[in-house]
Amino acid sequence: MGERARWLLVCVFVVVLSACQFSAPFDAIFSAQPVIPRGGTVTLAFSDGLDVVQPWHVQSRAAEAFVTVTQAGLMRLDNVGVPQLELLAGWTAAPDGTVITATLKPDLVWSDEQPLTSADVAYTYAALLTFAPTTPVLRELSVLTAVRAVDSLTVVFTLQRPYAPLLSLWALPILPMHVLGTQPIESLNLITLSTGAGPFIFSEKDSAGSLHLNANPQYHRGEPFLDGLVIVPELNQKGAIDGLRTGQIGIAELMEYSGDVSLNSVSTASIEQNSLVALVFNLRNEYVTADPELRSIVQSAIPVSETMQLAGLTQFAAQESLALSAHPFAATVTVTKTIDIQPLFARAGWQWDEDTRQFFKDEKPLTLRLGIDSTNQSHVRIAEALVALWRLRGLSVELIPMRRSQYLEQFIPPFAFDMAIVEWGNGRSDSQYADTYIYDGSTYPLFARDNVNTGLPDVRPTLNLSGYTDSSYESLQISAQSLYEYQKRTSIERDALIRVLQSNAVIPLARRMHTMVWQSSIATPKGEINLDTPWYLWGVEQWYLAVE
């Protein structure tokens, strides 16, 4: 090729390249990344109230949502409830597990652009440790003996013993020391705090009681795609449905939802609430239910799904795990269900008497008493369904409805029950409401030997009602609580829960559910939002409104 030809070729190449540069940016040619539309507001509706929000005493789903989107802790629970680094860059534990050194991410700032440092962390935990232990989380924090800021990024936590559940407790919000100063924070209401480190910041409460939140441009994971969120508390189902229909509401948590055929372009999902309805056996030696073989036979005669269908409680779903099923700790065991239980009883030494239609052993009839709270209609219906199905299988159970006070008294000495329907929450913020934003998933408080009530009525929110004692279970749980490596701890926690389930000390029956309904226009860079988990607000900063 001659010199002139080469120059012509170069000129043609430059012209073509220049044309490409003018017609489209170079990055756009080779990038497959979608363009994320920014702006807009999503409104979240809840049926419960939202007047006072304190991070150590969260009392409603609306309050949980508010804390999650406006505040930030050292950790944040992801969409299956596993602690992930939030304000932390990392942490290390001493070999004995009693000293943890936590390092903040550099250059963190509050929404008002003031630096967020280790002094804020030490301030927050020092304040919480001064509180009377009136909630489960405050009692748990007593494992801390000191929280000390070493430099602007480093905080040292000193513990009485290794305590792995601290990692999920680290989801508690860090509070701005420069705003709160030396004032006591016992009366703190986060709704009035316009400074935070979460993805959104409180702006105002309107005359209708809705809370308006603005995107926080200082959020360390990046400014949210949305301009803001609105939280609407205490909205009934009709109001929520109307708002979804008109597009004024983007997401609604409905305690009951039968399906509205006039709603278009919406999706639905069900979320388990952190409260479990279960059948509890009395395992104390003087009771017939202390016999593990008897409990196994009774368990095999409980068709959980059929029980819930017969009870007709649409707001409950059959449950076979002690932990929330979405959580890595959740575990189930395989139980062979049977209609004909007579052969099982015969092998266990019980004989069936056709005349009295009862099982006998050593000339003593098998009489099982099932205690229930007569004021709780859901529990009454579940118990009635259970008894009806048992009777079809030849097992006679006496249903004992009780006044609330009498029902509670059966769980203190002399423990006047064989079986009982109970419901408890495995939350940490409040004894009456089971939160999930600092959920750990361990059920150790429900089965720990030192939580067996041995005397007067006990006000602790989680008690070992069955009297379950098992040294192998205790060893597993002590080991799990000492392991900060999450995958190893997960495996041990599952083994511990399986051991409890196999003992049939407590048989899970159902969880309360609520329905999520949302506009299909809400999306994330990974696709549609996933609202079938209690931790659906994980990644809320990446929500956006898709252009239709």
Amount of helix: 25-40%
Strand residues, percent: 15-25%
Radius of gyration: 28 Å
Q: Helical region count?
A: 16
Low-pLDDT stretches: 3-31
Name of the CATH homologous superfamily of the largest domain: Dipeptide-binding Protein, Domain 3
Architecture overview:
Helices cover 27% and strands 22% of the residues. By secondary structure, the chain is α+β, with helices and mostly antiparallel strands. The longest helix is centred in the first third of the chain and has 21 residues, at 3-23. The strands form five sheets. Strands 1, 8, 9, 10, 11, 12, 13, 17, 18, 19 and 20 form an eleven-stranded mixed sheet that branches. Strands 4-5-7-6 form a four-stranded antiparallel sheet, with helices on one face. The protein contains 16 helices and 23 strands. Strand 14 (351-353) and strand 15 form a beta hairpin. It is globular, with a radius of gyration of 28 Å. Helix 10 (304-311) crosses helix 12 and helix 15 (471-482) packs antiparallel against helix 16. The protein has three domains: 40-71 and 198-265 and 520-548, D-Maltodextrin-Binding Protein, domain 2 (3-Layer(aba) Sandwich); 72-185, Alpha-Beta Complex (Dipeptide-binding Protein, domain 1), CATH 3.90.76; 273-513, Dipeptide-binding Protein, Domain 3 (Dipeptide-binding Protein, domain 3, Roll).
